[in-house]
């Protein structure tokens, strides 16, 4: 039996998207692939209202996160914690030998943008890394407000991890001053895992020219050269996933991005009110992500048992992440899921929990 995915990635992929991958393969060094890649880039630029360069990379989101570190940190990186993924980006910087500091934030709280201003004022940093939707805590960090602050520091490249938010909630790349936006389409863009997305400004590309040891696989300047000259990728791309991404973007254009964001808000509203009736929400009030809800296990239930019983009914939700395991559980309402499906899930949760 298929257990419908309400986990925060990979999310449930609809049959039409799955089938879109079954087209025969094409030569990735030929015009058909070039058109496919260009089409994906143009569609993403239209959906996100940006003219920035877009790279589709054959790796999960972590790959593009590592690429961002290698390409844009010249002097010192400032990372914002507050959850497993914010802290992961910091660890990636350190693992790549970069000078890096972490602003520690209590898990479940949003970062206070003033803390960032204080640190940037020291003039030690040339890069700032922030997670938008922190998938371990369900917090949506205030990237718009942070962007206003970063504009006061023109030497700083502003990088945002939108792995669990891109396509599910609005991101204004230009207005919010985001230089590098990283994402992965197995979440809100609802395709199978295996690709990442990097949306990169001119300013960031100029920085990359000054950075040594960018590596090879995630060298964005090499990717730019291949794209600009031939609309190709340096290494063999996951062509079938490109089919799926193209198909999904067509669906999104048809739905309308604003309608998609609204659908995410409505699903989030339903899950939050269900959760607040019986438990409480983990994120700080006012900063809840519209793409996933992290629920505090105030009743002390055995979450693993809940997940198992729900699985027998055909649904998958996620336990808390890392140190939040059993203390929280997570319900994703992202991608192509609908309110009807989310209501079906909460009805089944009621039955399992006998609420
Ligand atoms: C916010 C966030 N950043 C980064 C990642 C890592 O992405 P991937 O698992 O695609 O490598 C995830 C994965 O869940 C995530 O949720």
From TrEMBL:
Gene3D superfamilies: Aspartate Aminotransferase, domain 1, Type I PLP-dependent aspartate aminotransferase-like (Major domain)
Modified residues (N6-(pyridoxal phosphate)lysine): 187
Binding locations of substrate: 330
Alphabetical keyword list: Aminotransferase, Pyridoxal phosphate, Transferase
Domain of life: Bacteria
Domain Aminotransferase class V intervals: 28-317
InterPro entries linked to this entry: Aminotrans_V_dom, PyrdxlP-dep_Trfase, PyrdxlP-dep_Trfase_major, PyrdxlP-dep_Trfase_small, SP_NH2Trfase/AEP_transaminase
Cofactor annotation: pyridoxal 5'-phosphate
A Pfam family hit: Aminotran_5
One Gene Ontology molecular-function label: L-serine-pyruvate transaminase activity
GO biological process, one term: glycine biosynthetic process, by transamination of glyoxylate
Family (UniProt): Belongs to the class-V pyridoxal-phosphate-dependent aminotransferase family.
PANTHER family documented for this protein: ALANINE--GLYOXYLATE AMINOTRANSFERASE (PTHR21152:SF40), AMINOTRANSFERASE CLASS V (PTHR21152)
Protein name, UniProt field: Aminotransferase
Species the sequence originates in: Candidatus Nealsonbacteria bacterium CG11_big_fil_rev_8_21_14_0_20_39_9
């Amino acid at each position: 039996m298929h257990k419908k995915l309400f986990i925060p990635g990979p999310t449930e992929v609809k049959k039409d998207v799955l089938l879109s991958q079954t087209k025969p393969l094409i030569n990735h060094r030929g015009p058909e692939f070039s058109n496919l890649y260009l089409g994906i880039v143009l569609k993403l630029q239209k959906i996100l209202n940006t003219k920035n360069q877009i790279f589709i990379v054959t790796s999960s989101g972590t790959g593009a996160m590592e690429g961002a570190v290698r390409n844009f940190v010249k002097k010192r990186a400032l990372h914002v914690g507050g959850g497993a993924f914010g802290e992961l980006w910091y660890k990636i910087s350190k693992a790549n030998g970069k000078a890096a500091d972490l602003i520690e934030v209590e898990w479940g709280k949003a970062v206070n943008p003033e803390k960032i201003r204080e640190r940037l004022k020291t003039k030690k940093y040339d890069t700032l890394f922030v997670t938008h939707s922190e998938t371990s805590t369900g917090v949506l960090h205030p990237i718009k407000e942070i962007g206003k602050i970063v504009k006061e520091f023109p030497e700083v490249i502003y990088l945002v991890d939108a792995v669990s938010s891109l396509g599910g909630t609005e991101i204004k790349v230009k207005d919010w001053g985001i230089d590098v936006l990283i994402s992965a389409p197995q979440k809100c863009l609802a395709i199978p895992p295996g690709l990442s997305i990097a949306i990169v400004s001119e300013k960031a590309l100029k920085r990359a020219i000054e950075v040594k040891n960018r590596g090879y696989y995630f060298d964005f300047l090499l990717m730019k050269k291949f794209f600009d000259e031939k609309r190709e990728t340096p290494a063999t791309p996951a062509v079938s996933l490109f089919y799926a991404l193209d198909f999904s973007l067509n669906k999104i254009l048809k739905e309308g991005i604003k309608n998609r964001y609204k659908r995410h808000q409505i699903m989030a509203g339903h899950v939050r009110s269900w959760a607040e009736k019986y438990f409480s929400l983990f994120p700080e009030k006012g900063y809840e992500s519209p793409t996933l809800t992290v629920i505090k296990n105030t009743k002390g239930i055995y979450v693993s048992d809940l997940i198992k019983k729900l699985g027998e009914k055909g649904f998958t939700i996620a336990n808390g992440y890392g140190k939040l395991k059993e203390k929280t559980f997570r319900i994703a309402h992202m991608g192509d899921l609908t309110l009807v499906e989310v209501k079906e899930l909460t009805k089944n949760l009621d039955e399992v929990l006998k609420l």
